[in-house]
Write a structure and sequence with these properties.
Layout: E1 2-3, H1 10-22, H2 35-48, E2 51-56, E3 61-66
Antiparallel strand pairs: 1-2, 2-3
Helix pairs in contact: 1-2
Length: 67
């Protein structure tokens, strides 16, 4: 189920984005990119509609995926 990012509180949205970028497998390669930069990039993608937040009721977890 899709969760509109606009319906989340700023704090909750920030935590979901931070959790997403800190997961294993979202490495940016050999270049160190600050957490603030990564989260800003994801937030911009959500605002542009390039990415969306989905909730899986079976696993009770959120993920950010390409729209």
């Amino acid at each position: 189920m899709e969760i509109p990012h606009q319906r989340l509180s700023p704090k909750t949205l920030q935590k979901i984005i931070e959790e997403f970028v800190l997961r294993e497998g979202t490495d940016y390669g050999h270049v160190d990119v600050p957490l603030e930069t990564k989260t800003a990039q994801i937030k911009k993608q959500l605002e542009k509609g390039v990415a969306k937040i989905v909730f899986d009721p079976k696993t009770e977890s959120c993920n950010i995926v390409r729209a």
